[in-house]
Fold this sequence. Notes:
single chain, alpha+beta, Nucleotidyltransferase, domain 5, Gyrase A, domain 2, 3 domains, 15 strands, 24% strand, disordered C terminus
Amino acid sequence: xxxxxxxLRPQFERAxxxxxxxxxxxxxxxxxxxxxxxxxxxxxxxxxGGNVWCLLHHxxxxxxxxxxxxxxxxxxxxxxxxxxxxxxxxxxxxxDIDRQDLRLALCLxxxxxxxxxxxxxxxxxxxxxxxxxxxxxxQTPFRIDQVYYDLRELPGPAPAGRIxxxxxxAPRAAVDAQLQHLRNAGIAxxxxxxxxxxxxxxxxxxxxxxARAHRDPRRRLNLVLAIGALLLLVLCLGQxxxxxxxxxxxxxxxxxDMRTDAQKIAxxxxxxxxxxxxxxxxxxxxxxxxxxxxxxxxxxxxxxxxTWLERFTVESSGGRIGxxxxxxxxxxxxxxxxxxxxxxGANFQGVIQRDPATNKExxxxxxxxxxxxxGKPAASSSAGGAQ
Length: 387
């Protein structure tokens, strides 16, 4: 794990420096301040959060504390006080600040440090402190073991491919005495910085090995909150997918119901068409057929009085007529039926024979029904026989 951490540390440091060098931190700081300004005063204290830097000043044997960016200072106290008294004075000065957010910086005056402006390649941005150690002999009259130093990137334009930086150096002899006094008083500091107006400059001359380590108790809570937020996001996405699946299932069920209804409608339409076709067929069949009663009436009107029928048949499928009977002059019946509008194609079947009992000619005729409207052969509406 340590090897992996050491391997990834340069990448993390590069990402951190790139983040700090971008305009995003300033934008989010401004945005957060604007949002906090809209909250009530009590809520502003709750959502303030973040590191609060307080500056320790030492002048003429007197110590004082003020918050970075504010001109008000605490009541001064003498460095001749004992350790508990000095700790009490510091605690009283920072009593309104959460201990988790409190950061103390020893603030040096401008005349106690030496600063140099440097123009460096962009590749130096990832390791400015090491570059400052290399430049110490060329830019200052001190050796690296004689000073506390830091190198910070300056905002503003710079030549293409290069960055502007400031090397800040303070002799150890001037700083060690104050650090030793604070150490004896039991006051731990987080940085050694310069005062620029009412705020700190933004450097830390204190070596990393001398910096105070802070344990952030909020980190575990933030981790739990982040995991909770991630779980809620996963649950929301799962609920969204579940809702989509339910909506899809509902739509599929509606489509299935509509398909079933459509099939029923198609079946009813088919049945209706078949019924319509059947009724039309029957209507056409009826229109193209001849009633037997009409045929019998026509035959009755045309047959002579000396002729009677013994048998009369009509085929329902083809409309063929069979007429069997006796007549005084059977041969003349063909001429009699030629003027009929219902019967056509009358012909004798077989030989005409005389019946000795009645002295009449026995005959059998074959004919065809026809539609009186069109004149074409037609089927009869029913089959029947007469004798």
